[in-house]
Amino acid sequence: MLVAQPVDAGLKPVAPLWGDGTLPLVPARSHPSPGPFRAEQIPEGSPYELSNGHPIFCLPTGRRGGLSNLIGGEVLETDPAVKAAGVGVGFSKDPSHLRAPDVSVGDFANEPGWAPGAPPLAVEYADTGQDEVELANKIAELLDAGTQHIWVVRLVGARRVEVHEPGKKVWLARPGEALTAPGILKNPVPVLALYDREAAHEAMLRNLLQRRGYESLEAALATASAEGKLEGKLEGKLEGKLEGKLEGELEAARRALFAVLKARRLEILEPQRNQILATRDLPLLERWLVQATTASTTAEALGEAR
Known about the structure:
Elements: E1 48-51, E2 54-57, H1 63-77, E3 84-87, E4 91-92, E5 103-106, E6 115-116, E7 121-126, H2 132-145, E8 149-154, E9 160-164, E10 171-173, E11 178-179, E12 189-190, H3 197-211, H4 217-263, H5 270-278, H6 282-292, H7 298-301
Parallel strand pairs: 4-6, 7-8
Antiparallel strand pairs: 1-2, 3-5, 5-7, 8-9, 9-10, 11-12
Helix pairs in contact: 1-3, 4-6
């Protein structure tokens, strides 16, 4: 946010911020002629932007502005179509200009130094003390440098967002409406998501789910449910196969036992037949089968091994 300070139009650079005298401490309101400074003279982290070579002093952001910058930046950064987004990133279209929107969206590298050109989408948060003249200059310079959409989020008064686009009349978007940036963002951005944490978190959740391949929370839940059903079905099939295999082995062991008892002419009483048919313990049936080869009676064959 750019904050107004009293300026004497004829004031020349005064006490420098750094020892080499590269920058003055006072801002300039209008710049009819080129100033003496270049973007490369401004170190990262300094509170200055440049307009036609003139320094613009940018004061720290207040609590409300800082919170809004953070949540608005997160909503935009998580959009599935966004390659890069940042807070306070400096863009320099030429050595005489350096502009740092509160939030920028584009395709800039994760490297030190100023980004070239201008961001396709820029967001400015305007709170109390906003320097409207300098804000208008900044908007004009960003649009001239190639920015396609500038959203000015008004934190004072009724919640509203001013939308600036090249060659178009400025229009307002209010809570309940959504902002779009075709070719830059995949999803519309609810106006409220640029102010309100809960609305921002809801938009971020949608964005993050889409980055994982789910169109919405409902789609993710439906997929999870379907995967759970599929897993259960597969487990059921596996259990069925295992159960079928066991049944086959049990039946084979019972038949072998009956065959041995019959071959050895051992009488099988009805209770003994039912005991063999009811047994589902495969190792026990196998033990009975071994015992039946030497037992003198069926009762002995079905008894405990000695």
